[in-house]
Every structure is written in C-alpha cells, then in structure tokens.
C-alpha cells in the first residue's frame, strides 16, 4: 500500500509533464503544417498570376515547392494542374498522365468548372501526345460538355483545335473542318488574332486535301487582314500553305525560288519548320532531291501516311521504283489499317455517346421537373378538396345546430309560462329569425349563405347578453350585485336565465352543452359560492335584493 502511494506521488508529476510535452508537440506540428499549407497556397496563387508570356518563371516557381509542403489533396491537384499547364506553355511535350490524373480525380467532383475543364483538356492533350487517340478524344469530349459559360473562349478554341487535329490524323477531314470552324468562332469571340489566323489556315488546308480548291483560295485571301499581327510560326505556315496551293499556277522555278527565300528567312528562328508541306511543294515542282532532304528532317515517329505518299513520289522521280512501291505500300497500310478505321469509328462513337448521354440527362431532368409540378398540382387539388369538404361539413353542422336550437326554443316558450314577458319576447324574436332561415329553400351550395349562418349561430351569445340587459332595466339591484363580482354581460345574462326559472338542461340547449359548463365554471369561480348549487344561490340573492 505504501509503495503504491509512493509511486503515485512520484509518477503523477512525470505523467503530467509528458502529457504537456505531447500536447505542445501536437500544437507545434499543427502550426508548422498550417504555415506550410499557407505558404504553398501563396506560391500557387503567385504562379497562377504569372503571365502566359513567361511560362518558364511559373515552372521554376513550381520546382521550388518541396513535395513535403504539399499537404492537402486540393493543393496537390492544383499543383498538378499548374505544373502540366506550365510545361505545355514552355513547349515541353508530356506523354505521361501520372501527374494530371491527380487533378482530374479531384476536379471531376469539384464545383470549380474552369479547373475541371483544364484537367480534362490537358489529360486529352497528354493522351494525344502518347498516341492514345481514343483516350484523348474521350477526355476532350468530357471537357467540351462542361458548362461553357464558365470557360473562357480562348480555352474552348484550343479544345476545338485539338479535336480537329485528331480528326485530321485519321483523315476525317469533314469532321476536322467542322471542329476548325468551331475553333474559329471561339477565337473571334476571344478576339484572338493568332487563333483566328490558325483556324482559317486549318480550314484552308483541310479543304485543299478534300480537293475543294476554290473554297480554300477564297479563305486564304482573307488572311491578309491578320498577317501583320501574327507570330513568326503563323507567318511561316501561311507562306508554306500558300506555296502549296499555288504550285499548280506558278512556274516551278519561280515557286522554288520563293520557297528557298522563305526558308532562308525562317531558318534563323528557333522554330519547327513544316517539312512535310515543304517536301510536297518541292516534289510537285520537280525537285525530288530537295524534297528528300526536307523529308529527312521529319522524325520517324512523326512520319505520317501522307509523308509516305510524298516519299513514294520522290523515290519514283529518282528512279528507285522498288523503294517507291514499298513507300506507297506503307501509305496504304497506314491509311487503311484496322486501328485507323477503329479510331475513326471510336471518335465518332465517343461524341455520339456523350451527346446521347446529355440528351438522356436533360430528358430525365424534364421528367423530374414535370413530376414535381404534377405532385404540387395534385397536392394543391387534394388540399383544396379537403378544405371545401371541411367547410361544407362545418356548415352542415351549423345548420343542424340551428335546427336543434329552433326546436329547443319552441319547446321552452311553450312550457315556461312564468318566463318574464320581455325575455319571452326576445326568445320569440330569436325563434322567428331562425325559423325564417330554416324555412327558406336550401341553396345548392351552403357556402352562399355561410356568412348569414355564422351570424345566426353567433347570436346565441347576444341572446344571453340581451336577457341580462333587460334585467338591468327591471331589476337593477340584482345586476349591480353581479357586476361587483366582475361578471361579463354574457355571464350576467346566464345568471338571469337561472332566475327566470330555466333548468340547467334547458340553458344548455340554448347555448350548447360545452358552452354551458365553461360559463358555469367561470361564474362559480367569481361568485362567493361554497357548496350551494349555482341556481339556488342566484335565486336566493335575487329574492333578497328585489323583495
């Protein structure tokens, strides 16, 4: 026992100190966590405010954030989105979706429509870079179906550019033109000169591939309005496309001279030249060596089916028939491949599937709204019907009460010959008014006489008060005595009916049973009555005062 006492004496301070240290440690960790979280969010806010023209600054600022400081899921999603966006603006080709998926997972269930759009847009871009075209189209369609009012027009324009390039890769030029026209519309709403210029270039190019030359030429002429305000890359694209479109109308030597002069200007810029188009122009002008040199600049992974057509023409012009045939077979294999056919079907199916899904959602919403409106209407009709029935029942009950009162008054007046003449006259008047009402033809709707019926029913209280008023004229001493006890006019009229000789049951017939017991109880509480009956006490007092 002594050892337990000693242990508790020495251990209690130690335990108390340990608990205090633990609490202090937890508070310190929470404060550090809050500081790191606040500091991280401040950096992310600063990164978001960095202009589009300096994306390298945004990327450097994001690199400076330690991973351990990104604590919450929300901050991690925002970091992933901003980092992917900065890489895209810096021209870095990203083919791994491991980072952007953090943003997609969070923002797909968020109310932040703009960041949800950005997440799906960059997921589509990364899948497109990785060659997963169906996954890219799926992400783009999800982005497109986010409420457009919350998305800036320049982002919607970029989305349609991406979709048009996917369709162009599968040689579905009709859909590619359709998406480019949407991109052009959004670029005009955003007042984006570069976007307008590039969209028109795409439409011209895709129409050219569809052999719709007049339409392409007409659009190309409209680009002169924007030429002075666009970037070097856009100007180069314009010059190359113009040269390709004019290859049938300008002499070959003049065309090649023009193209060489353009390349001499733009090779000084650190930009990617459109070597596939340049190769097509050279081979069309009859310069296969220059065309082959241009094709050698294209990486193997970006060598498209159309490039193999150009390569086939080049090799054939150089007399290499076998190699030309192999290149043409490559083109046939790529353009007619099962994967490409399936991709064309899948991309159209993805859009149709989402369009049908949206239609189903809107249809379900319409059904839900209609069901709610029908429920409210039904509830209103039921409530209104119940109210009408309740009012009708009440009126019928009042009518029945008046009939009962009429019979009771008629019986009272025939039995009580000793009733005061004045009171008898009042009761007679009451009886006549009820009789007049009851003997009228009952209308189709009792509601038409509801106000009159309620007045007649309420007159019961007036009847009793009138009896008291008559007594005040003829027996003032008795009424004065009742007034000293604070009785109301109706209560004094009730007392006078007792003095007139009415029995309890008879008074109850006039004012209804519940009303009788209530008023009787109130009167007994006010008068100095012990064990006597109310009627006996009142009669004795009346005789005492009136002689």
List keywords for this structure.
547 residues
Structure, explained:
- The protein has 547 residues and is mostly helical.
- The protein contains 24 helices and no strands.
- The longest helix has 78 residues, at 338-415.
- The protein is elongated, with a radius of gyration of 49 Å.
- The model has no long low-confidence stretch (mean pLDDT 75).
Briefly characterize the structure:
This protein has 547 residues and is an all-alpha fold. The chain has 24 helices and no strands.
Computed structural class: mainly alpha
Query: Count of helices?
Result: 24
Largest sheet: none
Shape annotation = elongated
- Provide the residue-averaged pLDDT: 75
What's the number of extended β-strand segments?
0
Any chance you could write out the topology, listing elements then pairs?
Blueprint: H1 2-49, H2 55-63, H3 73-89, H4 100-107, H5 113-129, H6 133-144, H7 153-169, H8 173-189, H9 193-209, H10 213-222, H11 232-245, H12 252-266, H13 275-285, H14 288-295, H15 305-317, H16 321-335, H17 338-415, H18 421-439, H19 450-474, H20 476-484, H21 489-499, H22 504-511, H23 513-526, H24 534-546
Helix pairs in contact: 1-2, 1-3, 2-3, 3-4, 3-5, 4-5, 5-6, 5-7, 6-7, 6-17, 7-8, 8-9, 9-10, 9-11, 11-12, 11-13, 12-13, 13-14, 13-15, 14-15, 15-16, 17-18, 17-19, 18-19, 19-20, 19-21, 21-24, 22-23
